Amino acid sequence: MHSFDPDKITLPSGHFINGQHLTGKGTALTVNRPSDGLRAAELFEADAALVDDAVTNADRAVRDSGWSSCPPRQRGAVLKRWADLIAADPLLAQLESLGSTRPIYDVVNHEIPFTAEAIRFYAECADKYSGDVLPTRDASLGMLVPEPYGVIGAITPWNFPLSMASWKCGPALAAGNAVVLKPSELTPFSTVRMAELAIQAGLPAGVLNIVQGGGAVTGSSLVAHPLVRKVSFTGSTATGARIMSDAAFNGMKPVTLELGGKSPQLVFDDCGDIDEVAGRILRGFTANGGQACVAGTRLIVQRGVHDALISKLIELCRGFRAGVTWHDSSRYAPMIDRRQAEKVASVVSSARQQGAEVLVGGERFADTGEGYFWQPTLLAVNGSDNPAVQEEIFGPVLTVQIFDDEAQGLALASHPTYGLCAGVHTKNIDRALRAMRGIAAGTVWINRYGRSGDFIIPTGGFHGSGIGKDLGRQAFEACQRYKSVLIDF
Ligand code: NAD
């Protein structure tokens, strides 16, 4: 049993700079618990001066400690120890569960193992990929020499605080950089513990730092700091655009941007077992209460299987129950806060005004007080211009559109703004590969939906869903810059 009493946990809500906790510095913001809306802690927002302390110190630490210049295998060994500590730390799991939308069951069985595995993956990358020796036309030897950037600024969202931190810190640290990470101001606690464990694992103090605060003050100060040489961001498309512009005007820094999505689930008549497909579709839009960038929130279903699939989905949606994240029996995530719940309500309401029909759900679970648990919702829509089809809702809302032939299905699958992921469900391999080619998305899942902890395949969006990749060897390589060397001898 992993249930715990949230009132018995001391929440680390301060900054973590140079291996030290720093509390009470900055303007106070209130952080609430998503499960019941009660106040969890005061968060002190880092201003530009404190961000400057963290970055300047990180820049010194990464060089003076030898982290950037030591044998890469040595860095890998520290990261492996860190992964082991992450996997074995009950407090880390509790902080994640209490402070975010993630039920403890999910945190223990998925979030923590996946976080540790991402760090292990990059521990193994540390000495596996190097530069290149190239045949040149007029020099005796040409080389491409990778080197770390120095300090990487990482900014993460609230939906998967530990995973997102591991995707940013793993490759950056393995490649020999220092990191100054700003977690979301809504979920500040678990990353502090994660950074503390990194020091216990042998990471030199100052190489991984956490600064707390919102985007306008702390986040923008981090992006603009002259010693931050690269920015790695995950969050909404609007914030990503702002960060890209700030990074360009403050030193032309490279950015990795993992942004929003509105991903289609394309189901053909020949999809196979309907119950199994319904399970995939259900998980795709209800995992973390739909608060996942990769959520498959647009069902585009061929007429022949429409009725059977919808009736199975309605039955499954009716089986969900709300419950606080710190009980072992809870499986379903609340909305992160009242604002997010109101956003879901407002899009559902405008969708209905514009002709959408609620097939199941459509409102909050009753009797959950200030915890905002939204019922899994199916909306039959009559046109792609419906707001529920256009907007990233970030809640458990699945729109349903019907198609007759393949070309029509593919046309409905494309989205004017986003291109993060897509699900294709068919037993016909030719059709599956045509659909894979035809959909503009950074990831296409065929007869499955979701990644489930395999980090060799990178992730990243097309169009408004982002630039660059997280995960895979590609993210490690993106944490290095390459120096071209020509030698005559
Ligand atoms: P958000 O854009 O509001 O905030 C993300 C982070 O950016 C937060 O830490 C926030 O404080 C910070 N921020 C805000 N304004 C900033 C600024 N001007 N300068 C610097 N930092 C700033 O996103 P959110 O609401 O926390 O997260 C939800 C969004 O994240 C969704 O759109 C979701 O699709 C996206 N997301 C994408 C991926 C992916 O891999 N593509 C993964 C998870 C979440």
UniProtKB/TrEMBL annotation:
Ranges where the Aldehyde dehydrogenase domain occurs: 27-485
Residues at the catalytic site: E258
UniProt keyword terms in alphabetical order: Oxidoreductase
UniProt cross-references to InterPro entries, sorted A to Z: Ald_DH/histidinol_DH, Ald_DH_C, Ald_DH_CS_GLU, Ald_DH_N, Aldehyde_DH_dom
GO molecular function list: aldehyde dehydrogenase [NAD(P)+] activity
Protein's UniProt keywords contain Transport: no
One Pfam family this sequence matches: Aldedh
Record PANTHER family: ALDEHYDE DEHYDROGENASE-RELATED
The family this protein is said to belong to: Belongs to the aldehyde dehydrogenase family.
Listed name of the protein: Aldehyde dehydrogenase family protein
Source organism: Erwinia sorbitola
Organism ancestry: Bacteria, Pseudomonadati, Pseudomonadota, Gammaproteobacteria, Enterobacterales
